[in-house]
Amino acid sequence: MTPEVRQQPQPAVHVARTVDPLRERTMRSLIIGVVAALVLTVVGALGTDQAPIGLRLGYWLAVVLPGSLLGLLMAYAVQSWGRLEGRPLLETLLVSVMVAVPHTFIVVVASTLMFGFNAITPSLIGWFGVVVLFVSLVLTAINFATSPKLVIVAAPVSAPVAPAPQPQFETPPIPVGPPTMPVSLAERLPVRLQSGRLLALEAEDHYLRVHTDLGSDLVLMRMVDAIAMLIDVPGARVHRSWWVARGAVDGASSDAGRTVLRLTGVLEVPVSRAAKPELVAAGWL
Predict the structure, then answer these.
(1) β-sheet bridge partners, residue 249
(2) pLDDT band at 174 (very low <50, low <70, confident <90, very high)
(3) Where are the beta strands (DSSP E) in the chain?
(4) Does the predicted model carry a pTM greater than 0.85?
């Protein structure tokens, strides 16, 4: 995040992934899985070319689609963990391995039903495991490549009123206390929270949890749309799933490479590795 500047309105930019709704991710994974199954059917991969095309298609759909759903689940778990953010190759490898272990047994069962193996031996399971891991790597990489790329999320800051000439750049004082809730955001919340002061926004799939000093609640909207309502509220996108009001920060701590912000009350917010240098430069940490 660049420091807020009391000058002409400038976007305090932060590079972060946009929130990818669960429905969109599921549909994309299933479409990629169906396309992969069709390609494997047409080429008769792994010796399936001797089977009738209808049986072949059924086999590959039964093999690939469970893997697509497993991949979606494992990717969500790894991204929620957050320790590999900014390391797409390691993230892809970990997701692929997590998918390959259970998916290997699905493939063994489906292949046994179709081809009628006399016995399921360790060597047979090992061979299928290698094949499943390779396919998982390919499909996971395709899913990651077709996911929304890193985008610039602008969080504009307000212009000052300064009658006297000022230096070209001036860092404003750190706001004291959580900011008042903008009306456009407050009206989406229950009445009990509308008079609260804003602490943070947290993405939960395609919902947004609004944290205030009076409690929190979910609203159906995207993070980028909520940030657009906060044009006059100093704050920053500190993580893929978190926006934090500057005045709500009470302190920060780091442990084993993991940095968290302590907000007013008991709320703790993770700081992504990508955001940390910019937060340090802006005086947050």
Answers:
(1) 263
(2) low
(3) 11-16, 151-156, 198-204, 207-212, 215-219, 235-239, 242-245, 249-255, 258-263, 268-271
(4) no
